[in-house]
Amino acid sequence: MEAFDLAFIYSNRDPITVDLLFLIKAVALFNANRHDEAMRRVQDLSIAYQHSDTLPCSVVNSYLHVQLAMIAFEDGRYSEAADQLDDSIPCITDLFSRRTLFEPRLKIFTVLFGWNLDSLWQTVNQRRCEAFLCADRVIEAVESYQYMVNMIEEAAKPSYLEWSTAFKQDCTASCVTKGDAATAASDYETAIELFSAAIALDSSCHSLFARRSEANLGRNLYAGALHDAEKVQYP
Question: In angstroms, how far is the first alpha carbon of the chain from the final one?
Answer without folding.
Answer: 66
